[in-house]
Write a structure and sequence with these properties.
seven-stranded mixed sheet, four-stranded antiparallel sheet, 43% strand
């Protein structure tokens, strides 16, 4: 089974930046669409950004448009999430996952259809 490991979270002040990375255990990761999701305490997990396997299609939830950038290719088997201009409301645990059935997230950038979830990395925007 494909294993995903998120890294790069931490504590940052409002307006700061973080770069999250999702590293996969297998090269086949590059054949799948990948998503970044977040979940705050007491809230449902939501899709933040998704990218197709070829990198040509990206989706961002409205609240992060213009601030976050999803990308793949800086390293094999990895997908990054660059987060700029962070706000307190971005505080959550961030997870990556792959779209189970192929290279495009045709059911939407929502948790349904995604799997092989990592353990998550905490992002806290405060101060």
């Amino acid at each position: 089974q494909l294993q995903l490991v998120e890294s790069g979270g931490g504590l940052v002040r409002p307006g700061g930046s973080l770069r999250l990375s999702c590293a996969a255990s297998e090269v086949t990761f590059d054949h799948y669409a990948v998503g970044w999701f977040r979940q705050a305490p007491g809230q449902e997990r939501e899709g933040v950004a998704c990218i197709s396997s070829d990198g040509r299609s990206e989706y961002y939830t409205d609240s992060v448009k213009g601030r976050f950038t999803i990308s793949r290719g800086h390293a094999k088997n990895a997908v990054d999430l660059q987060m700029n201009s962070l706000k307190p409301e971005d505080t959550a645990k961030y997870y990556c996952a792959r779209f189970l059935t192929g290279g495009y997230y045709y059911t939407g950038c929502t948790p349904d259809g995604f799997g092989d979830w990592g353990q998550g990395t905490q992002v806290t925007v405060s101060g």
